[in-house]
Structure formats: C-alpha cells, structure tokens
Amino acid sequence: MTETEVLFNGRWLRLCRRGRWEFADRTNPGGGVVIVAVTPEDRILFVEQWREALRAKTIEMPAGLVGDAAGDPAESAVEAARRELLEETGYAAGHIEFLMAGPSSSGSGFTSGSGSRPSLRSRQCKYSCGSGGVW
Fold it and tell me: Which residues pair with 56 in a beta bridge?
C-alpha cells in the first residue's frame, strides 16, 4: 500500500496525499452526527447554512461534530445530536434514536480519521433520528 503524506495539519482538517489521490481527513476524534429530524406531521426538518468553502448557503439536515460542546470531550453521538438539533433549529426532540454509523462521504475526497477505512470508534458519521419533541 502507498504511504500517506501529510500536506497540511489544521485545527479541524488534515490534507493528505496517497499516491495520486489527495484528500482531507477530519482531525476530531468523535466524528460527526447528522440528524433526521421528523416533526409530528411526519415532515423532515432541514436547515439553511452558510458554507464559506462554497461562498453560498446550502440546504441540509442538521449536523455537527461529536465532542464539540465546550468541556465535554466524552459526549456521545446521541447527546451531540440532541445538542446540534437545538443549536441549529431551536427545536428539542422528545426522542432520539441512533440509526447507523458510516462515512460522511464515500468519494468527495474526504475521509474521517486516519485516511484508512473508517472504524466504528471514531472515524464515522453517526446518523440519528429525532422525533416527538417540541416543534
């Protein structure tokens, strides 16, 4: 296997090269969460976010980093989902269910950890479903 070359280390991202392939690694050990927020009317909640890399707003599901809360590096994926949903939408879910873990993107040049295959421990995006709360 070709060795990975680190091109740049930033606070949240590491830029790497392996052979001819260049990619970005997330450096936060907790990974991220994406929330599928379902309202009592069975509608899925989306948020509008400014994304500097695009210099435009995007429409996306509420999401964020696990362990991003000040002073709580041991935050769980479900706790992060609850926090991010409230922060990004103002809504609080009555119930949050962990759905699955997987890579945040399969081919856009992003990985989520060491640049190798994702591990269940820290290099994946956690998908949670929130429902039945204060909408």
Answer: 51
57 Cβ partners below 8 Å, 6+ apart? 48, 49, 50, 51
Cβ atoms of residues 67 and 76 within 8 Å: no
Residue 39 inside a domain? The answer is: yes
Q: Which of 29, 41, 39 is nearest to 62 (CA)?
A: 39
Q: Which tens digits make up the pLDDT trace of 82-109?
A: 899 999 998 888 888 888 777 666 654 4
| Residue range 11-55, pLDDT digits in tens | 878 999 999 998 888 777 677 888 888 888 888 889 999 988 899
Strands 125-131 and 32-38, bridge-based pairing: parallel
Report d(CA 57, CA 65) in Å as an integer.
Answer: 19
Q: Is residue 58 part of a domain?
A: yes
Q: C-alpha angle with apex 54: 52 to 88, nearest 5 degrees?
A: 55
* Residue 9 within any structural domain of the chain: no
